[in-house]
Each structure stands twice: as structure tokens, then as C-alpha cells.
Protein: Zinc finger protein 862
Amino acid sequence: MKTLQPRCKLTARVFILQLTTLVADLNELIVSLAGKFLKPEKVPRLRPGEVLTDDAVKDLRQDLRDAAALVPISSADFGAGVRIWLGQVRLDPTVLKNVQTRCVRYLAVLVQNLLDILPEQTPRLMSVKHFTPSEVLRVAGRADILDLPIHLAEQEDVDDLKKEWERLARVDWGAFFDGNIPKTSVEFWQGVVDYDRLGAEQKFGKISALAFRALSAPLANADVERAFSFMNCIKTKKRNSMSPKLLEAIMRVRMRMTKSGCCKAFEPWPAMLAKFTSDMYTYERRPVGGDGRAGGLEADEDGGWEEITLCALEEDGVEVYDM
Structure:
């Protein structure tokens, strides 16, 4: 099934790069694969950008288990590459039918698995598409505030969100981005945040926060489990005293590096090594104990120090992290 792998990998990249188009692309892939072995009247019809309804998904699941809904094995579409290969080799008819039957079963299982990963509450998820630059900058037919995923916002913020959403259309974003408006939602909304930082007041603070909240929403349990796995690798027993803010920062850096596929062979440069000395740490001394002994550093049960303060040296000052 090598002919199907590039298409599936493309959809996998869409999952990562652009949340607002993944659902529509996944539905398109499901319909395309189902059309290779299901009878035409059993294949749902989708217009660009549309998604399968709950009833269509239910019917498709039933058709996958119904032999009467399948086209004859000889009529199944396995791609031009397979047809060319079959024209070059001579297989026994029994062997050929067996191979084709197994291919149809493979396609049916693949479609079933893709249906299983379709996110729940698809209408709510599809509302995220309104945060794409093309939708935000629309002149006519622009989405209403109620079309946005406002279920992710506080009830008392709806009026402010409406004002900020309408104000977005009155900004010359082409000039702000020097004529190169980002095509992805994340890059565009990061630009909106940067625009806010240039002004004396936040004009789009709440709507940009809502956009990032919607764009970063997990699509499945696998996303949550992956985040927990990253955290488990970071927060070891020795690092148990790290603050949540520091742990979150480390996790963001690690996930970003993993996603970008970079920094797998990091080597510290000499200037960095020169700063890795005992001067990085400050030690808290204990007061004199009741037994008259002078206070000092005491090891905990695990053999480590109870408290060590790590200083991050900067040009303008010293930032202290409690470890």
C-alpha cells in the first residue's frame, strides 16, 4: 500500500502544522479511500471544506461491515501503479483474487481507523477555522462572534471579544506585516500579539488569547498522554522542587525542539562552559542548632541538598531560580 502512505503522511503533517484545516482534510481522505472499494451510492459526497455528519459516519461504519456495499473485487481501485504492475506480471487468478481481497480488507480497516480518530464535537472544532488569516481579514461574509469557539472563553468576556473581533478588520495588517501576511494561524496571531505590544494598551488581548487557546486544544487523548510523557521525563525526583512555571518553560522548549527536529546533538560553547562553576549556586546555611553545632548545609535522605538556588546570570542582573 505504498501508494497510500504519502497521502496519510501528508495528513499527519497537517495535524501538526495547521489545526484549522486538519478536520476537513481528514474527512476528504476518508471519503477518497472509501471510494476505492465501496459502491458509488454508498460513498458520501463532500464539498470543499465540509465534514462528515454524525449520520454519514454512522452509515459509513455500517457499510464497511456490509459485503453488499462493496464493489466487485476486480473493480476496486488500487491505483495506477498497481494496474501497471499487474500488466507486467502474470499471476494465477486465484492468487490475484486473494491479493486483491486482502488489499480491500486493508483499505476497509484503514478507513475504520481514520473514522475512529475523528475528533468528537466536530462542529465546535471546525469553528477554529475562523481564526485563519483568510477568514479574519475577510471583507464580506465574515464570521460572527458566536461562530467562534466562545465556549473556551469566560462568559463575561463575550462583549469584549466581540469588540476586539470587529476591531481586527479595521487594522491594515498588510502594512504591519510589510505586505507578507502569514498564511498559518499561529504565525498570524503571534503577529497580532506583537502588534499589541507596540501600543500603549492591549487592543486584542482577549481575542488573541482565545485564538491560541483554541489552536492549542488537544484533539485526542494521545496529545494529552504525549504531554504527560514529556513532563515525566522532565520532572524527576531530583527536580521535584521546580516551580510549575519553570517546568512549563522546559517542557515548551523540549516539545518545540522535538517538533522542529533540531538540537539533537547540542554541544555547549566555551563561553557557556566557563560559566558552569560553583559561582552559579548560592547556599542557604541553617541557624545554630540546639546541640550547639554551627549551622551548615545538610544532606536530605536521598543524599542531595535540601535547597540550592541556581542563579541565571544576565547582562542586566541576576535571575534566581529555587531548585
